Amino acid sequence: MNKINVTLCLIFTIVLLFSAQVLAFTPKADSPLAKREHPRLHITVDKLAFWRQTLSQQYRSEFQDYVNWAAEMSDNDDYNILSEAGHDPLRAVMVHQAFIAAIGQVDGISYPISLAKYAERAINSLIRRLNAGDDLAYVAALTYDWTYNYMTDDQRRQIADMVKTRTVTHKVFNHSLSNPSFTPEQMFSSKYYEGCYAWYIGLAFWGDGLIDAEADQALDSFSQVMLNYGYLDAHNFVAGQSGGWSEWIGYSSWHPRTHFLNIDAWYTATGEDYISNSSTVDGSAIAHYPTFMYYMLDPHKYFDRHYSFIRTGIAEATDPSFEHRSMREQMYNLPRLLNQVGLGETAGLMRHLIETYQVEWHSYEHHYLWGFLGLHKSVSPRTPQELGLPHSLWAKNTGVFVARTGFDNPADGVFMVMDGHYRFEGHGGADDTPGFALAKFGELVNTRNVAHRGYGNLDDYPGARKNNIVYFEGGHTLSHQSMADQADLEAAANGQGDYDWGGIEQVTQREGIFYHVRVNRSPMFQDGVQHVREYVWFPGENPATDSDFLVVFDRAVAPSMAEWVYHVPWKPEAFNYQSSEDLTTGTGTSDRIGTAYTGQQVIIKEFNGLGGEKDGDGGDGDYVGGANAHGVVFCQTFLPQQARVEVTRVASFDSDVLKRQHHLAIKTHRWQVSVKPTEFNQEQLFLNVFQAADANTTQQMASIQAIRSGTVMQGVFIEKESANRPNFLTLFYQKDSLNTGTVTYTINGQGRTIHVISGLLPDMVYEVKRLYGSQSETFMTRSERSMQTWDYQGQRELIKTGVLYFESDLTGSETYIINPLGNRDDVPPARPGGLKIR
Predict the structure, then answer these.
(1) In a 3-state reduction of DSSP, which class is residue 258?
(2) What is the pLDDT of residue 190?
(3) Which residues contact 699 (CB under 8 A, 6 or more apart)?
(4) Cβ of 305: how many Cβ atoms within 10 Å?
(5) How far from 667 is each of 400, 488, 663, CA to CA, in Å?
(6) Torsion of CA 589, 595, 600, 602, to 10 degrees
(7) How far is CA 558 from CA 296, 518, 525, 535, 644, in A?
(8) Residues 6+ apart with CB under 8 A from 827
(9) Residue environment code for 357-389, b if the CB has 16+ CB neighbours within 10 A, otherwise e
(10) Which of 48, 271, 583, 831 holds its CA 20 to 30 A away from the CA of 312?
């Protein structure tokens, strides 16, 4: 071997040793990083044939438009900013030119310019913008990675030298590849989503022999910034094993897209899967997102055009809509991410949602990339039925429970409870808008809101409220800790600290028959104020013909007057009242219009197809906002026995309301219904019953009677609405504890009857004696075992209420006497004659 070769070998060996010394990060074997391959971000060398085939066979028309557009677009710097990381992070033309070059020749596509020319233009734009001093975000890393194989060594070196110390776009922190580490804060808000991260940039440059030390320390920061109760853990904690986002559904209309970019790039480059696997905490926001979406779907198609989610959180009226650009981007972006880590069925569910609910392809070519990165047509569609999804979901940490009559039927009814235990700092989510929602042929009941950040004057009048809860004069609220940083998350995830504000504590259900939800809001009050709410939802068996019934029972203790509130889209009607009073205070933007109705068992009727004043897009037009909805909801108040029911709205809408309601004013829920006692009681009970139905077939409310068991149990008997429907009986214990005694009640009716009784002992065998005519029979049953409870490990103990369910065939007036047997029994009871035990 000659001296020159020996010298070269020594130099090569030294370079390898030096590289091994500085590259402390160890990627998985056979990963693109380990093999020093490009492309590695989202696209990988081993999958290029798959990309080309899918684009050719499934997206040929869209991809042809895309390559034409990318060739024709000017390289003007207005379209090539590097620093954008929030609202349109993939806007720059260079990244699209780079994508086309990286994919290579796709069969059936006619290219106006050569692949090398696309790459050249992208490379030149990247260098030009770096020379101009742009900060770094996703486009810089992607353009470098996707055009790496077209670059000269000098170009790679030039780009790397400028990137090394350049600031990476972030809302809070000033960081770079040379200074990549920081301690995350404001983890649950736009401060995370609308920024980029040094480790993402580092993925593109790692191992290229250019800025290895800086890229390596940037990748090392992933553990500090994303794991160990960092950003990734934060959003996985919110989702748990059910799904959801801290901002659902306001800013989550667009923010999750950058989270997808982050975690997908990490997986494709390193081989480490944080999509299907949990991180430091138990949960995965990405893996469960399609399922979560499906539960939150609003089955109604507004104006025969717009599908959407049920609105929760502080959102603009159209944020839940599938026409929302960024919502479409994230939907289309998900399938490949999921499929590549073995979640093909969930990816197929996402495709099924896109196609069933007509989620349109992107409107502008520079948004096409989101769809190409998701390749939804590469997976087979899967239905909720094929996946065996139950009809209910409790996303505990998100703070949402939802139950449905089914999936993919436009007549499906939806019942939702929003009452989260945690408060996530940042833009408002479901935890900031507690209450409940009902939908059938359009939204019927929901919290009131027109836009984020408090825009609009819907609440700017005397007595206005926002949420569907019990309010107390004087407030009496008590603040607990909110969650914002790593220390907060670590403490809360381990049951420590003062992070539990109260919320949904227990869910008990028989799928398709009844859903019982207990909410304890007492921890958020002081001065002895207590508030516990129980819901029982009876879904219709046939959504096209059957009503859904919701019974809401509240126990409130306070030194001041309590007020029970919910909201509806349009002006409702009132029935069965003894007197009324005009509540109008004027005609201005801070005045009130409305009427108070006083009486016993007042009924309020809301038709969601009615519309209202200035309810068109931008306030243009009157009574056009019903959006072909045809649901009706009745609400009858049984407690207080004598109640004042106030129906109110702001007298005149300000410009923000009219601007931000867009064309879905129906989802802002302008009108407020407040149930108030006519006299003060420190211990106040509220009992209200809703019936949600098709307004085309249901003109009046079903017959409902108040039922009591002595002085301790209170409830209702709902007579069957048709010959094919059952009766419903539900009873609640009037104290926030467990009834250990006898329960006795009498009801009068005919046919199948569903009995649901709460406030009993959990997992306890009960003897039920049925007296009818001159006959009697006795059987044993047990309180329900299908119980989910809140599992925060803090100091507060939960009351786990037993819920008893059984069925009978009524033959007139019948009395039921129910006693606990005093033992818990694992042996199921025998099926008695003449009754239906399920």
Answers:
(1) helix
(2) 87
(3) none
(4) 13
(5) 18, 34, 9
(6) -80
(7) 34, 19, 10, 21, 19
(8) none
(9) bebeebeebbbbbbbbbbbbbbbebbebeebeb
(10) 583
Helix axes 138-147, 256-270, angle to 10 degrees: 30
> Global pTM?
0.94
User: H or E stretch including 504?
Assistant: strand 503-510
Residues of the chain with pLDDT under 70: 1-23, 793-796, 823-838
Burial of 772 from C-beta contacts in 10 A (0-12 / 13-18 / 19+)? middle
Helix (H, G, I), strand (E, B), or coil: what is residue 252? helix
Asked if residue 546 lies in contact with residue 556, where contact means CB atoms within 8 angstroms, the answer is no
Helix residue ranges per DSSP H, 173-312 = 190-193, 198-205, 212-225, 231-239, 256-270, 289-296
What the block records as the tokens of 637 is: 């108040």
SS3 for 604-640 is: EEEECCCCCCCCCHHHCCCCCCCCCCCEEEEEEEEEC
d(CA 321, CA 309): 6
Segment (H or E) for 392: strand 392-395
CA distance 129 to 80: 7
- pLDDT at position 825 is 52
Which residue in this structure is represented by tokens 């906002």?
Answer: 625
CA–CA gap between residue 766 and residue 804 (Å, rounded): 9
| Structure tokens that stand for 555 in this block | 């126990």
- Among 511, 517, 516, 549, CA closest to 391: 511
In angstroms, rounded to a whole number, what is the distance separating the alpha carbons of residues 65 and 197?
32
Cis status of the peptide bond prior to 829, with omega within 30 of 0: no
**The token pair that represents 432 in the structure block:** 């900031």
Taking a C-beta distance cutoff of 8 angstroms, is the pair 761, 740 a contact? yes
pLDDT in tens, 289-347: 999 999 999 999 999 999 999 998 888 899 899 999 999 999 999 999 999 999 999 99
Q: What single letter denotes the amino acid at residue 18?
A: F
Element (H or E) spanning 752, and its range?
A: strand 743-760
DSSP state of 773: T
Q: How far apart are CA 475 and CA 524, in angstroms?
A: 10
**What are the backbone dihedrals phi and psi of residue 678, each rounded to the nearest 5 degrees, phi first?**
-85, -10
Angle (CA) 596-312-555 rounded to 5° is: 50
Give the 3-state secondary structure of residue 171.
coil
Return phi, psi of residue 774, to 5°.
-100, 10
Quick one: 642 exposed, middle or buried, by C-beta within 10 A (0-12, 13-18, 19+)?
Answer: middle
Spatial strand order in the sheet of 435-439: 392-395, 400-404, 414-418, 435-439, 443-445
Task: Quote helix, strand, coil % in the chain, to nearest 5.
Answer: 30, 25, 45
> Which pairing describes strands 727-733 and 743-760: parallel, antiparallel, or unpaired?
parallel
Q: How many CB atoms lie within 10 A of CB 571?
A: 18
CB 482 within 8 A of CB 425: yes
- Tell me the C-alpha distance between 26 and 5, whole Å: 31
| Tokens at 424, concatenated | 């996530």
Rg for the chain (alpha carbons), in Å? 30
Q: For residue 6, give every residue at least 6 positions away whose Cβ sits within 8 Å of its Cβ, in sequence order, or none.
A: none
597 in helix, strand or coil? strand
In 10 A of CB 830, how many CB atoms?
9
DSSP element (H, E) containing 671:
strand 671-677
Q: What is the pLDDT of residues 758-792, one digit of tens each?
A: 999 999 999 999 999 999 999 999 999 989 999 77
Rounded Cα distance between 619 and 622, Å, is 8
* DSSP 8-state code for residue 701: P
| DSSP 8-state secondary structure symbol assigned to residue 109 | P
Residue 611 CA, chain-centre distance (Å), reads: 27
Per the listing, tokens 């081993």 go with 46
pLDDT at residue number 430 = 83
Residue 227 burial by Cβ neighbours in a 10 Å radius (0-12, 13-18, 19+): middle
